[in-house]
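Tutorial handout. Part one gives the primary structure; part two gives the three-dimensional structure as tokens.
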Amino acid sequence: MGKYDIIRMAELVKVEDPDSEGGLTLIFSDNKTLKIKVVDDKLVSEFV
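Part two.
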């Protein structure tokens, strides 16, 4: 869970479903953004 510590207890501000890439984007307070998408039948997440 260390990867997601930066959004722990952060307020979810906006959800873009689908986003411009066809995935899901979660926007948290303090401009923390998590993008989630399916690549080769696996879920991939990255912070932007």
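Part three, for discussion. Residues 18 and 24 are 5 Å apart (CA to CA). The mean pLDDT is 89.
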